[in-house]
Amino acid sequence: MKLNILLVFVTLYSLNLTWAQKYKIDPGHSNVQIKVERFGVIDVVGRFKDLEGTIIYDEGDLSKTTAESTIKVDSYDANNLVGEDAVKSVIFLDVANHPNITFESKSVLIKDTSNFLIGDLTIRGVTNEIQLPFTIKGPLMDLASQKQSIAFNAQTTINRQDYGIELKRALPNGIKLVADEVDITLNILAIAE
Fold first, then answer.
1. CATH of domain 19-192
2. What distance in Å separates the CA atoms of residue 12 and residue 18, rounded to the nearest whole number?
3. How does pLDDT run across 41-53, given as a tens digit for each residue?
């Protein structure tokens, strides 16, 4: 009888155990979107279509979450060839000398009901530590791959001048041609390896 009770407890305990799982970013179902105000009038929205990286996620212990990613600057698309070329030029992201944007997490900060990945964001060869607020949905079965998948979503705002993008031109009324603040939205699907 005691052995049966012990087996029940061991079984229940083992069902509650989770392990950190490594997920690979699916570039075909992921994107990084940026939004910046132009001429003080309209927001220009573009996205990077080519990214790769991994997320390690432990559903039972969020503090063990890590992420690393590389975004190909040349994959920037804004449905405007002139604007795309400008973003890739030496004035802004300088794709010829800095073909990648990278992020590498260092820790997780959990505040109230919000979660933040603390990590290094490198743009144009300049690295700054950021707090990236994020949510994770899943894991759920991905029908196409028949593997577990997660959705990683995050939004943050950076100042472009912190990364050496120092365009200071302004309109006659003093409004900057391009605002300093850049909103970044990540919509990532990652598949278990």
1. 2.40.128.110
2. 13
3. 899 999 999 999 9
